[in-house]
Amino acid sequence: MEFRIERGALTDAVSRAARVLPARSPVPVLGGLLLDVDASGRLRVSGLDFEASARVETRVHSVRAGKVLVMGRRLLDICKVLPEGPVECAVEGSRFTVAGDGSRFGLSVLPLDDHPALPPLPEVHGAVDAGEFASAVAQVAVAAGKDESLPTLTGIRLGLDGSTMTLAATDRYRFAVRTLPFEAVRPAVTADVVVSARRLAGIARSLGGSGPVSVAVDGGSAGFEHAGTRTTVRLLDGRLPRHDKLFAMADPSVAVLDRALLVEALRRVSVVADGGSPVQLTFSAGPEGSVLLQAGFEDDVAAQRLPATLSGAEEMTVAFNPGYLMDALSSFEDPVIRMKLLGPGQRAMITGGAEAGTPTHQHLLMSVKPALL
Questions:
Q1: CATH of domain 124-242
Q2: pLDDT tens by residue, 134-171
Q3: CATH 3.10.150.10 fits 2-114, yes or no
Q4: Strands of the sheet with 300-307, listed across from one edge
Q5: Using CA atoms, how far apart are residues 83 and 88, in angstroms rounded to an integer?
Q6: Low-confidence stretches of the chain (pLDDT beneath 70)
Q7: Which listed CATH number (1.10.1200.10, 3.20.20.480, 3.10.180.10, 3.10.150.10) goes with 249-366?
Q8: Model pTM?
Q9: DSSP codes, 77-107
């Protein structure tokens, strides 16, 4: 094997494929990346572990076709420090060499026969826009659980129903849902599976910013293909709870306020919210409507008042875990947000500022009992 490639293209391909490699593995070859160059000048960089796989294609100037398996993270480290410009890669005996602009590195070659074959891509169900998909995954992933003893709650629900994709995640204290357009291969296409939030977020980031992403699902895995990058991930067992009834809120009070101002104020007052103590929000209606943010106990307290409107009540006080509230607010891009409030210790719904139709992005939080400040 011998080929020439620009340093940036090699680094991009290796970094995308290396996302699926395990941090530690009892099987050394699973830490390897397979580089496969054919006579037409196509380089395929692929890796896998027991949960996910990735294959990235890019163009090279091929001198001699062949395959080689090397430690993926070590190769990525080398790519990051290579000088800009063309890079010469070759297999020389039992070593894979990478050279460019006077720099030269050598890596030990791993046994090809011990490396498992990549799983096939499942049946393609349709396509979604890459940029919108990446944004949607990031918006719901913040609500996914971190407790590995409850593995289903560490996932994102991926639902397909005709022309709509639904992404949802919950850790029991918050519930985020995002819908986006989906171009199904057939009108009757449906799916309802759970994918690791960590894995799906990594996949979404690796897909690039534009163009269609093919979405493939079967009984055991989900696959995504975009611009030469193909990834698969094993599904999680179980199902996430449905959000329909949970999101139905009868006669809530509705607060509307500037998202950036609220994020800034929340960040400011939270510096005294030690030990996960709540941040209290007191909304007041009237011609000069406002919200008063308060945090802290005894002598260490902070407060800030912001303009806001409140309908459905003269006053409403709720409190939230400041980290959860910040995650929710940061997942929105709208300049104005709406908060539907039922009262202290009850559900609160955050959406973008538009009133018409069902919001495409909804984030439900459980409020906590307001503290005495």
A1: 3.10.150.10
A2: 999 999 999 999 999 999 999 999 999 989 999 999 99
A3: yes
A4: 300-307, 290-297, 279-284, 315-320
A5: 12
A6: 208, 354-357, 371-373
A7: 3.10.150.10
A8: 0.90
A9: HHHHHSPSSEEEEEEETTEEEEEETTEEEEE
